[in-house]
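Please discuss these two lines.
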Amino acid sequence: MSSVEFRDQSRDIIARLELRETRRSGSLSVARQRLAHRLGTVPGTLETLARGRLKRIDDWLRARAETLLIREIEHEISALEHELACLRATGADPRLSAVGEIETALATARKLMERE
């Protein structure tokens, strides 16, 4: 893999993490601060990467970002499985839209994990 591909893939991974964190916090700047702290870097590095101005990305940062994304997807799968189990335990009709949506989300999350 070329250094350009490595940087672009790293940017995509970090962008996905930023999007997830922005959904939780409601603000991109807050999300970048939190994510930078979790990754062990500074928010400016993430901003520079997002703008496409970062010349190179360190292997350790890419590895941490991949690990964090995998953990978040695994957590999402676990939460969805729990929600589905609760619905089934209450005797929810499998034809309910909530059950179908959860099963679809689970299938999507599992596909993502298979590609990683």
